[in-house]
Inverse folding.
C-alpha cells in the first residue's frame, strides 16, 4: 500500500503542475492550492500507514521498477521516519506558501504555480529516493524551478541572483555526482555489477572502501551539500538569493531546500564515508562555529530585513550542523529536530516579511518602524515567530537547539558520555555565544519593525501630495514594465494591491497553523523525538568504534592499505 | 661514406644552423625598407650565408674532400638570390622578372639532375606562360606612378612583421636542412641512388621494348632502309621484341622476307624526354585526364571572373528577353 | 629587355647540355642532388616568408609560385636519387596546377583591385572579430 | 536597653542542623491539582490573547488575571496546608523531553519531564509570589485604566505569562523546566518593559534587559549541561541524593567545580548583580506595577531562589560561596552609592532593590540562607509598597517622578495616605530597629560579622556602612518629595501611558500647566496599598515571634526543611569588641540607620540648599571632583560596557560583513566567474581579420609541429 502512496506523492504534484499549465490563468492559483492540499493529504495518509515509526526502517522497502537495469539504476522509493518528517514539513508548508502568494503574484500566475508544483515534486522525490541516481536527479532538478521562480518574480537584480544560485549549487552538485560515481565504479569493480541503491552503496562503502579513499570521497560528497546547506565559506549566495527571491521562493528555500543539503548530509555523506566524516570532523566543527558567530554578527548590522533573516538562517543551520557533526545520537537527533523547527519558524518569518513587502514595497528596516500601531495582529505573529527562532523554551526552536548544545557538550573523549566525540564543552560555550547573538539581532529586528515610533516609507509626504501623487502612482503602476514598478519605491504605499492595513483573514489563516505547530513542538516534542531517534541510531552505527579508534590513534589513516575497516556495529 | 663521428656531426649541423641564421639575418635586413647601405650589407650577408650553406652541403656530399663542383653552386646561389630579390623588391614588375631568373637557374639544376625535358618544359611553361600572365596583370593593376615619384606605393615597400615571418622561415629551413643534410641521410641517399641506377638501366630497356616505332627507326637506320620501309619483328620467347643473349641485346627484324639481327647498344636507349613521356602515359594515365580537367576548369573560372559587370537598363533587359518595349512617349516607337 | 635576357640564357644552356647528351645516363652526382635539395628548401622558405610578409597581393602569388618552384626542384632531385622519371612526371602536374592557380588567382586579384583600387591585402579585413 | 538583652537570648538554642540530610522526595500523584497553580495564569494569558484578538474595550482582562492569580494563591495556601514543612513531593505532570542511548556501562539517559518539586522552599517562595502578584494585579487594574482600549489586554496578558513562568520556575522539579520558567520570565519582563512601545527608550530598555538575561541564561544552560554530564541527571531529587552520597570521583579536572560558578552567572544575570545589573534601572521604563511586581518583588529574587535551591552544589568548590558573598556585598555598596545621586524616584528604588539583593546574596554567601530568605520575604513587601506609592504619585501627577520637582506631597489633598505609607516603606527599607527588615538584615550581617573568615567580616562592616547609605538615600527621597513646602510641577505627558498624540499633547498641554491639580488615587490603588502595608508589618511577625515569644522563626523552619538547609541553622558568631555578634550588629545597625536619617533630615528638609552646597564643595576640590560625577553617571558602567562589548562587536560585525561581501562573495565567487571572460579576451587579438595574420599563424603552427616531429625523428635515429 505504501509503495503506491510513495509514487503518488511524487506523481500527484507533477499531475497538478500539468493541470495548472493547461488551466485558464485566474483558475491557476486555486488548482495549485488544491494540488498542494492533495499532496499534503497523501503525505498524511502515508504517515498514518507508516509501519516503521519506531524502528528506523524504510517503507516501502520493495525494489521498484528498474529505470536503467544495465546501470543498476532502479526507481526505488522509500522513506524512514526522518525523511517522512521532512516530507510532512514540505507538504505542510507548500499550501501555506501558495495561499500566501495569491495577491503578491500578479504576473503570469500559471507559470508560478506550475513551477512550484514541480519544485514540490522534485523535493519529495529527493526525500523519498532510495536510489543514488534518483536522489541526485531530483536533488539537482530543484534548481530549475527555483531558477525560474527567482528570475521571473524576484526583486531588482533577480536574474544575477538566479544565475548565481544555479551555477553555485550546480558546481557543488557536480562534485557530489563525482563522489557517487566513484563509489559506484568501485562497487562495479569489486562486485562486478552496477548498483546505485543507497542501501547497498552505504553497506559497500563503510565496509570495503579503504580509509584513505573514504577521506576524500567524503569531501566530494560533502561539496554539493556544503553549498546547499550552506556551510560558512559557501554561504554567500544565500543572502543574495533571499533578497531577490519572491516571498514564496524565500519561504520554500529556507523551509525545505536548505534541508535538502542537511538531509543529503544525513542520508548520503555521513553513512557512506564514516571514516571521512570522522577525519574531517574537526575542520567541519570549526566551520560551524565560525558560521554561528560570524553570521550572527553580520546579521546585527544588516539594514534589509530579509537579508537579516537570511543570514540568521545561515547561523541556525550552522548550529544544526554542529549537532550533526557531534556524531552522537542526542546531537544528531537535535539537528534533525532543528531542521524541522528552523523550517517552520524561519519560513514563517519570511512570510511575515513578505506581507510587509506586499504592503510597503520595501524591506528596509530604516524606512519601516513601529508597525504595531497599524498592524497589531501581524506584530503578534512577528514577535511570536521571532521568539520561536530565538530558541525560547516552550517554543519549537528550544528543543532542537538544546539537544544540539548538549550533543556538542557531551561529544568529548571522556568515558562518561555514551558516545565519545571530537567536540566538548568549549564548542558548546562558543555555540552558546551564538544564542546571545541570536537574541541581539532578532530583537533588533523586532525592535525596529514592530516596536518604536511609527515610520512608514513616504508616509509623511503622502498626506499632502496625496491627490496628485495618487493619480501619478496609478499611471506609473499601469504603464510601466513590471521591473520598474518592482524596483522603484512606490511614492505612496499604493492601495493598488487592495490589502487591508493589518493582515487579513487569508494571511492569518496561513500563520496560525504554523504558530500552533511551533507551540506544540515546543511543549510536547516527545512523539517527534521518539520517531527521529531510531533512524538516527541506525545511521550512527559505525561511528562510536571509529571515533574511539580516532581518539586513540589520532588518525584513522593507517599507513599503507590496511584491511578495510570493519563496520563494527558495536551498539546502535 | 662511413658514419661520421658524432662530434663533427654535431659541428656540421651547428655550422649549418649558423649559416641559415646568417642568411635569415641578411634577408631581414634586405626586406626592411631601411637605408640603402643597410640593405646592401643585408644582401652581402645573405649571399655569404647561402654560399657557405652550399659549400657545407656539397662538402658533405663529396665526402668531405675536394672542391665542390662549380655548376650546382652557381645555379643554386643564383636561384636563391633571384628568389630573395623577388621577395624583397619594392617594384612588383621587377619581382616578376627576377622570378624568371629563378626559373632559369632552377632549370639549370634540372639539367644537372638529368631532367632535361623538364628543364625546358619549366622555362617554357613557367617563365613563358605563367610569368607573362603575371606581368600582364601587374601592368593592368598597377597605377601609373606619379611622375617623378619613382618609389612604389606604400604597401609594396613595407613588409608585414618581417622578423616573425623570417623566424618562421628560418625554423622551417633549419629543420629541413637538418633533416636532409645529415650524414646518415646522405648515406641513405647514396645507397638508394646506387640501387636506383641499376633499376634505371633495366627500366630503360623495358621502356625501349615498349616503343616499337623507335625500334623500327633504329633498325631502318642500322639497315639503311628507306624511311617508310615496312619492318616486321619476330617476338622472342616471352613475346618480348628485344631478345637477350648473355649481356647483348638485339632485335630480329624481317625485311622483305629475310631476318636480320639488329644489335642494340646503350646509345639506343630512349632519351629522357622519351622516358618521361613513357612513364607519364604508362604510369599516370588518370592523372593526365585530371590535369586536363583542372586546366579547363581554370579556363572557365578565369572567364567567369574576368566578366565585365555590365549594368543592363530596364529596356535592354526587356529587349534581351524578347519582350516589346512599353513606353508612353509617342515617338519612341521601334526606332531604337 | 627581358626577351633578350632569356635568349642569352638559353644559348648558354644548349651548349652545356649537348656535352651532356652523350652520356644518356649522367653519372649520379651527389653534389648536384644536394645542391638541388638545399636550393629547393631555401626557395620554399623564401617563398613562405614572402607570402607572409609582402602586402601586395600579386607578389604574394608570386611567392606561392616560388614555393611551387621549390617543390618541383625537390621532386626532380629525389627522382634523380631513385633513378626513375616519376619525379619529373609529377613536376608536369605541378606545372598544370601552377598554371591553373595563376589564372584563377590573377582573375580574382583583378576583381579585388577593381573593387578597392588597391592591391594591398590589408584592405580586405572585414571578417575581423572586432 | 531591654531590647538588647532580649536579642542576646535569641541565639542560644542553636539547632545544629548542618548534618541533617535533605529528605528524599516522595512521589505524590494525588497533588496533580498543584499543576493548576501554573495552569491558571497560563489560561488567563490565553484568555487575554483572545480578548486582544476580539479587540475588547473593557477591563475584562484585568478581572481574568486577578481571578487567576487569586486562585493560584488560594491553591498555594491549600498546598502549604497539605505539605507544609513535610517531606518534599514530586508531582509529574507530563513528559517533556527524554532521551537515552548506549548500552552497558555507556548507557546515558536524559529525562526532563514537566513535573513539580514541592518542598518548604517552593511553598515559601510561591506564597509571596502569588500573594503579591494578585495584590499588584488589583492595583494595576486601576492604574492602567487610561489604557483600556489600547494596551490593557497586552499588559495583563504579560502579567499572566509572567506569573505562569515564575510559577514554573519555582515549582520545577528539574533544572531544564527551571530553565523554561527562567526564560519565560525573561520574555514576560521583555514584553512588559517594552509596554510603552512608542518610546524608543522603552524598546531599547526591553531589548537590553532580555539580552543581559540571556547572557545569564547561557551560564545557567552550561551549568545544567555540566551537571548532567557529571551527575547524569538534572532532576533535584536524584541530584540531592547523588550529592548526599559524597562528592563524585571528579574525573574531569575543572568540570564539576565549574558548576557553581556557572549557576552563579545565571543568578547574577537574572537578579541584576554586579556584572549584569545595568538593565534593572532601565527596566523602570515599564509601567510602575510591572516595576513593583517583577523588578522589585518576584523576578529578581529568582537568582536567590536558584542558589538556595541548588545550595548543596555550592559545596563543590571551596570559594564558590565566598564569591557569591563578595559579589553581593560589592553590589550592595555600589548600588547604594549610585542610588544616592539619582533624582528619579523609581530609579532610586531600583538601585535600592539592587542593593538589597546584594544583601541577600551576601547572606547566601556567608552561609545564612535563613537570613537571605527572610530578607527576600520582607524586601518583597516593603519594596512593593515603595514602588506602588511612587506609582500612585506618578499616576496623580501625570508621570512626574523627579524628586526635584515634587515637594511636600504630604499636605497635598488625596496623597496623605500615600505619603504615610511611603514613610512606612522608607523606615522598613532603612532597617529601623524592630522593623521586619531589621531582623532579616541583622541576621545576614551578624552571620557575616560573626564568621571566622576575615573577608566575611570586612563584608559585614561594608554591609553596615551600606545600611547607613541606604538610610540616607531613602529619607533623602522622602524628605524631598513628601515633606517640606507644597510645590510641584505636573509631568510632561498627559497620561503616562500611550503617547499616540504626544506631539499634540505637549502643545495643548503647555497652557494648561498653571491650573493643573493632581488627582489622588482611588480605591483600586488604596486598598492594595493598605493590604501590602499590613503585609509589610506582618512580615516582621516571624522575627517578633522568635524574639518575644521564643517561637521558632517561621522562615527559619521553612528554610530548615528545604534543600537550603545547610545555611538555615541558628547563627552563633564569636565575640567582637567584647560584645556578642548579635548585640554588636544591632547596636551598630541602629546607630547607622538613625545617623543616616538625621543627615537626610538635616540636608534635605531643614536646609535644602545644604545638599547642593555639599555637592558644589565636592566638585570644587579637585581630589574629590570625581565622586559626584561618577555617582551621577552610575559609575560609568553603561559606558564601560558599551566601550568594552557593544562597540568592538559593532566594529567587528561591520568588518565581517565587509569581508564577507567583498572577499568571500566578491573575490572568490564572482572572481571565479570572471576568469573565463578574462581568458577569452586574452586571445582576442588573434582574430584581426587580416589574411596574412591567419596565414602566419597557420604557417607558424605547421612549422613548429614539423620541427618538433623531425626533431624527435632526428633524435631517434640521427
Amino acid at each position: 500500500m505504501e509503495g503506491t502512496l510513495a509514487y503518488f506523492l511524487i506523481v500527484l504534484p507533477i499531475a497538478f503542475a500539468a493541470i495548472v499549465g493547461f488551466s485558464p490563468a485566474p483558475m491557476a492559483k486555486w488548482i495549485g492550492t488544491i494540488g498542494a492540499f492533495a499532496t499534503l493529504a497523501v503525505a498524511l495518509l502515508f504517515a498514518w500507514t507508516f509501519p516503521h515509526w519506531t524502528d528506523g526502517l524504510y517503507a516501502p522497502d520493495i525494489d521498484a521498477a528498474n529505470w536503467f537495469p544495465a546501470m543498476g539504476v532502479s526507481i526505488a522509493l522509500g522513506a524512514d521516519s526522518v525523511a517522512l518528517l521532512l516530507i510532512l514539513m514540505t507538504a505542510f508548508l507548500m499550501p501555506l506558501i501558495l495561499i500566501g502568494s495569491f495577491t503578491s503574484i500578479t504576473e503570469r500566475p500559471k507559470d508560478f504555480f506550475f513551477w512550484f508544483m514541480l519544485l514540490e515534486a522534485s523535493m519529495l522525490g529527493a526525500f523519498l529516493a532510495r536510489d543514488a541516481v534518483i536522489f541526485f536527479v531530483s536533488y539537482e532538478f530543484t534548481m530549475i524551478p527555483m531558477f525560474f521562480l527567482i528570475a521571473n518574480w524576484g526583486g531588482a537584480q533577480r536574474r544575477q541572483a538566479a544565475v548565481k544560485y544555479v551555477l553555485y549549487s550546480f558546481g557543488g552538485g557536480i562534485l557530489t555526482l563525482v563522489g557517487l560515481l566513484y563509489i559506484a565504479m568501485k562497487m562495479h569493480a569489486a562486485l562486478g555489477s552496477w548498483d546505485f541503491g543507497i542501501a547497498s552503496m552505504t553497506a559497500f562503502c563503510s565496509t570495503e572502501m579503504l580509509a584513505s579513499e573514504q577521506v576524500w570521497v567524503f569531501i566530494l560528497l560533502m561539496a554539493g551539500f556544503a553549498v546547499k546547506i550552506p556551510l560558512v565559506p559557501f554561504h554567500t549566495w544565500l543572502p543574495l538569493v533571499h533578497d531577490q527571491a519572491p516571498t514564496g521562493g524565500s519561504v520554500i528555500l529556507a523551509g525545505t531546500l536548505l534541508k535538502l543539503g542537511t538531509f543529503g548530509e544525513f542520508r548520503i555523506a555521513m553513512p557512506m564515508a564514516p571514516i571521512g566524516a570522522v577525519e574531517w570532523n574537526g575542520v567541519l566543527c570549526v566551520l560551524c562555529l565560525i558560521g554561528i558567530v560570524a553570521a550572527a554578527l553580520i546579521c546585527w548590522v544588516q539594514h534589509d530585513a530579509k537579508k537579516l533573516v537570511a543570514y540568521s538562517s545561515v547561523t541556525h543551520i550552522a548550529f544544526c550542523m554542529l549537532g550533526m557533526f557531534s556524531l552522537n545520537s542526542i546531537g544528531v537527533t537535535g539537528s534533525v529536530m532543528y531542521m524541522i523547527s528552523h523550517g517552520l519558524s524561519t519560513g514563517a518569518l519570511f512570510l511575515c516579511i513578505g506581507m510587509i513587502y506586499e504592503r510597503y514595497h520595501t524591506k528596509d528596516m530604516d524606512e519601516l518602524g513601529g508597525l504595531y500601531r497599524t498592524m497589531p495582529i501581524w506584530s503578534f505573529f512577528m514577535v511570536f515567530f521571532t521568539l520561536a527562532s530565538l530558541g525560547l523554551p516552550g517554543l519549537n526552536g528550544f528543543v532542537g537547539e538544546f539537544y544540539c548544545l548538549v550533543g556538542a557538550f557531551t561529544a568529548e573523549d571522556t568515558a562518561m558520555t555514551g558516545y565519545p566525540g571530537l567536540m566538548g564543552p568549549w564548542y558548546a560555550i562558543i555555540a552558546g555565544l551564538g544564542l546571545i547573538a541570536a537574541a541581539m539581532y532578532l530583537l533588533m529586528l523586532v525592535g525596529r519593525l514592530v516596536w518604536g515610533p511609527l515610520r512608514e516609507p513616504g508616509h509623511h509626504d503622502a498626506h499632502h501630495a496625496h491627490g496628485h501623487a495618487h493619480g501619478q502612482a496609478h499611471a506609473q503602476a499601469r504603464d510601466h514594465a513590471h521591473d520598474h514598478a518592482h524596483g522603484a519605491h512606490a511614492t505612496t504605499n499604493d492601495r493598488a494591491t487592495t490589502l487591508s492595513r493589518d493582515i487579513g483573514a487569508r494571511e492569518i489563516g496561513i500563520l496560525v497553523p504554523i504558530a500552533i505547530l511551533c507551540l506544540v513542538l515546543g511543549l510536547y516534542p516527545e512523539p517527534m523525538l521518539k520517531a527521529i531517534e531510531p533512524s538516527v541510531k541506525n545511521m550512527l552505527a559505525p561511528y562510536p568504534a571509529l571515533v574511539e579508534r580516532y581518539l586513540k590513534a589520532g588518525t584513522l589513516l593507517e599507513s599503507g592499505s590496511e584491511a578495510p575497516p570493519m563496520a563494527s556495529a558495536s551498539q546502535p | 661514406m662511413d658514419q661520421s663521428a658524432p662530434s663533427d656531426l654535431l659541428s656540421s649541423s651547428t655550422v649549418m644552423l649558423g649559416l641559415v641564421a646568417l642568411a635569415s639575418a641578411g634577408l631581414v635586413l634586405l626586406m626592411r625598407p631601411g637605408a640603402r647601405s643597410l640593405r646592401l650589407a643585408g644582401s652581402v650577408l645573405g649571399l655569404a650565408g647561402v654560399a657557405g650553406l652550399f659549400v657545407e652541403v656539397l662538402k658533405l656530399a663529396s665526402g668531405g674532400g675536394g672542391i665542390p663542383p662549380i655548376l650546382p653552386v652557381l645555379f643554386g646561389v643564383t636561384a636563391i638570390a633571384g628568389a630573395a630579390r623577388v621577395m624583397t623588391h619594392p617594384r612588383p614588375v621587377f619581382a616578376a622578372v627576377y622570378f624568371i631568373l629563378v626559373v632559369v637557374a632552377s632549370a639549370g639544376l634540372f639539367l644537372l639532375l638529368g631532367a632535361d625535358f623538364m628543364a625546358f618544359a619549366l622555362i617554357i611553361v613557367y617563365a613563358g606562360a605563367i610569368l607573362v600572365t603575371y606581368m600582364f596583370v601587374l601592368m593592368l593593376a598597377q597605377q601609373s606612378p606619379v611622375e617623378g615619384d619613382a618609389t612604389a606605393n606604400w604597401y609594396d615597400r613595407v613588409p608585414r612583421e618581417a622578423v616573425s615571418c623570417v623566424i618562421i622561415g628560418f625554423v622551417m629551413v633549419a629543420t629541413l636542412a637538418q633533416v636532409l643534410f645529415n650524414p646518415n641521410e646522405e648515406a641513405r641517399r647514396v645507397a638508394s641512388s646506387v640501387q636506383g641506377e641499376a633499376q634505371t638501366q633495366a627500366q630503360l630497356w623495358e621502356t625501349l621494348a615498349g616503343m616499337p616505332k623507335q625500334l623500327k627507326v633504329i633498325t631502318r637506320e642500322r639497315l639503311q632502309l628507306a624511311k617508310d620501309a615496312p619492318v616486321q619483328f619476330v617476338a622472342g620467347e616471352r613475346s618480348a621484341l628485344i631478345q637477350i643473349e648473355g649481356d647483348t641485346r638485339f632485335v630480329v627484324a624481317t625485311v622483305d622476307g629475310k631476318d636480320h639481327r639488329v644489335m642494340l647498344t646503350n646509345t639506343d636507349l630512349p632519351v629522357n624526354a622519351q622516358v618521361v613521356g613513357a612513364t607519364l602515359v604508362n604510369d599516370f594515365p588518370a592523372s593526365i585526364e585530371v590535369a586536363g580537367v583542372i586546366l579547363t576548369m581554370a579556363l572557365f573560372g578565369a572567364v567567369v571572373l574576368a566578366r565585365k559587370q555590365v549594368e543592363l537598363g530596364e529596356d535592354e533587359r526587356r529587349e534581351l528577353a524578347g519582350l516589346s518595349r512599353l513606353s508612353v512617349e509617342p515617338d519612341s516607337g521601334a526606332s531604337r | 629587355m627581358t626577351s633578350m635576357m632569356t635568349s642569352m640564357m638559353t644559348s648558354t644552356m644548349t651548349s652545356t647540355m649537348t656535352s651532356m647528351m652523350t652520356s644518356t645516363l649522367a653519372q649520379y652526382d651527389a653534389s648536384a642532388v644536394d645542391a638541388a635539395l638545399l636550393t629547393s628548401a631555401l626557395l620554399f622558405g623564401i617563398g613562405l616568408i614572402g607570402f607572409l610578409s609582402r602586402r601586395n597581393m600579386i607578389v604574394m602569388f608570386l611567392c606561392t609560385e616560388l614555393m611551387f618552384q621549390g617543390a618541383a626542384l625537390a621532386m626532380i632531385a629525389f627522382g634523380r636519387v631513385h633513378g626513375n622519371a616519376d619525379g619529373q612526371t609529377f613536376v608536369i602536374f605541378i606545372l598544370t596546377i601552377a598554371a591553373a592557380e595563376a589564372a584563377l588567382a590573377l582573375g580574382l586579384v583583378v576583381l579585388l583591385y577593381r573593387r578597392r583600387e588597391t592591391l594591398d591585402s590589408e584592405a580586405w579585413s572585414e571578417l575581423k572579430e572586432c | 536597653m531591654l531590647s538588647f538583652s532580649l536579642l542576646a537570648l535569641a541565639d542560644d538554642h542553636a539547632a545544629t542542623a548542618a548534618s541533617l540530610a535533605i529528605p528524599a522526595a516522595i512521589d505524590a500523584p494525588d497533588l496533580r491539582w498543584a499543576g493548576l497553580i501554573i495552569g491558571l495564569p497560563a489560561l488567563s494569558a490565553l484568555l487575554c490573547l483572545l480578548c486582544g484578538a476580539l479587540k475588547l474595550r473593557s477591563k475584562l482582562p484585568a478581572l481574568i488575571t486577578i481571578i487567576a492569580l487569586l486562585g493560584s494563591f488560594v491553591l498555594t495556601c491549600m498546598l502549604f496546608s497539605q505539605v507544609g514543612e513535610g517531606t518534599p513531593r514530586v508531582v509529574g505532570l507530563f513528559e517533556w523531553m527524554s532521551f537515552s542511548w548506549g548500552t552497558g556501562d555507556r548507557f546515558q539517559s536524559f529525562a526532563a519531564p514537566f513535573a513539580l518539586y514541592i518542598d518548604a522552599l517552593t511553598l515559601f517562595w510561591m506564597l509571596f509570589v502569588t500573594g503579591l502578584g494578585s495584590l499588584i494585579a488589583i492595583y494595576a487594574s486601576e492604574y492602567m485604566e487610561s489604557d483600556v482600549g489600547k494596551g490593557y489586554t497586552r499588559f495583563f496578558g504579560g502579567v499572566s505569562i509572567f506569573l505562569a513562568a515564575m510559577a514554573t520556575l519555582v515549582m520545577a522539579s528539574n533544572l531544564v523546566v527551571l530553565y523554561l520558567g527562567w526564560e519565560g520570565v525573561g520574555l514576560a519582563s521583555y514584553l512588559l518593559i517594552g509596554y510603552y512601545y512608542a518610546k524608543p527608550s522603552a524598546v531599547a530598555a526591553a531589548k537590553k534587559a532580555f539580552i543581559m538575561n540571556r547572557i545569564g541564561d547561557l551560564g545557567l544552560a552550561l551549568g545544567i549541561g555540566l551537571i548532567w554530564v557529571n551527575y547524569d541527571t538534572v532532576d533535584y531529587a536524584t541530584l540531592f541524593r547523588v550529592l548526599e552520597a559524597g562528592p563524585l570521583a571528579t574525573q574531569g579536572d575543572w568540570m564539576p567545580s565549574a558548576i557553581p560558578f556557572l549557576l552563579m552567572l545565571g543568578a547574577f544575570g537574572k537578579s541584576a548583580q554586579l556584572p549584569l545589573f545595568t538593565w534593572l534601572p532601565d527596566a523602570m521604563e515599564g509601567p510602575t506595577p510591572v516595576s513593583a511586581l517583577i523588578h522589585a518583588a518576584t523576578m529578581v529574587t529568582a537568582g536567590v531562589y536558584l542558589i538556595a535551591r541548588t545550595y548543596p552544589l555550592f559545596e563543590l568548590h571551596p570559594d564558590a560561596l565566598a564569591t557569591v558573598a563578595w559579589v553581593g556585598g560589592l553590589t550592595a555598596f555600589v548600588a547604594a552609592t549610585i542610588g544616592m545621586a539619582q533624582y528619579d524616584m523609581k530609579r532610586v528604588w531600583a538601585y535600592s532593590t539592587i542593593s538589597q539583593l546584594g544583601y541577600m546574596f551576601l547572606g547566601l554567601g556567608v552561609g545564612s540562607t535563613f537570613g537571605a530568605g527572610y530578607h527576600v520575604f520582607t524586601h518583597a513587601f516593603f519594596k512593593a509598597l515603595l514602588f506602588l506609592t511612587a506609582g500612585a504619585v506618578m499616576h496623580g501627577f501625570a508621570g512626574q517622578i523627579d524628586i526635584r520637582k515634587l515637594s511636600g506631597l504630604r499636605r497635598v489633598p488625596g496623597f496623605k495616605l500615600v505619603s504615610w505609607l511611603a514613610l512606612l516603606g522608607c523606615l522598613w527599607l532603612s532597617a529601623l530597629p524592630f522593623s521586619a527588615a531589621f531582623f532579616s538584615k541583622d541576621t545576614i550581617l551578624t552571620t557575616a560579622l560573626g564568621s571566622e573568615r576575615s573577608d566575611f567580616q570586612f563584608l559585614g562592616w561594608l554591609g553596615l556602612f551600606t545600611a547607613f547609605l541606604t538610610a540616607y538615600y531613602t529619607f533623602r527621597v522622602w524628605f524631598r518629595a513628601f515633606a517640606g513646602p507644597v510645590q510641584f510641577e505636573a509631568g510632561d505627558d498627559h497620561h503616562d501611558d500611550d503617547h499616540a498624540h504626544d506631539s499634540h499633547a505637549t502643545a495643548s498641554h503647555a497652557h494648561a500647566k498653571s491650573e493643573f491639580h493632581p488627582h489622588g488615587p482611588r480605591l483600586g490603588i488604596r486598598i492594595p496599598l493598605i493590604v501590602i502595608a499590613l503585609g509589610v508589618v506582618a512580615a516582621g511577625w516571624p522575627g517578633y515571634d522568635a524574639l518575644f515569644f521564643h517561637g521558632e522563626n517561621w522562615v527559619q523552619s521553612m528554610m530548615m526543611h528545604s534543600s537550603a538547609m545547610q545555611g538555615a541553622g541558628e547563627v552563633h558568631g564569636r565575640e567582637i569588641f567584647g560584645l556578642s555578634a548579635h548585640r554588636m550588629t544591632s547596636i551598630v545597625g541602629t546607630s547607622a540607620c538613625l545617623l543616616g536619617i538625621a543627615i537626610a533630615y538635616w540636608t534635605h528638609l531643614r536646609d535644602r540648599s545644604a545638599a547642593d552646597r555639599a555637592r558644589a564643595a565636592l566638585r570644587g576640590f579637585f581630589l574629590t571632583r570625581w565622586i559626584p560625577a561618577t555617582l551621577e553617571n552610575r559609575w560609568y558602567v553603561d559606558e564601560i560596557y558599551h566601550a568594552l562589548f557593544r562597540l568592538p562587536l559593532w566594529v567587528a560585525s561591520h568588518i565581517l560583513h565587509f569581508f564577507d561581501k567583498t572577499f568571500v562573495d566578491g573575490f572568490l565567487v564572482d572572481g571565479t566567474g570572471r576568469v573565463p571572460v578574462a581568458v577569452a579576451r586574452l586571445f582576442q587579438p588573434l582574430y584581426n581579420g587580416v589574411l596574412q595574420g591567419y596565414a602566419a599563424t597557420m604557417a607558424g603552427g605547421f612549422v613548429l609541429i614539423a620541427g618538433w616531429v623531425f626533431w624527435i625523428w632526428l633524435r631517434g635515429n640521427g
Notes: Chain D touches chain A through 66 residues (CB under 8 Å).
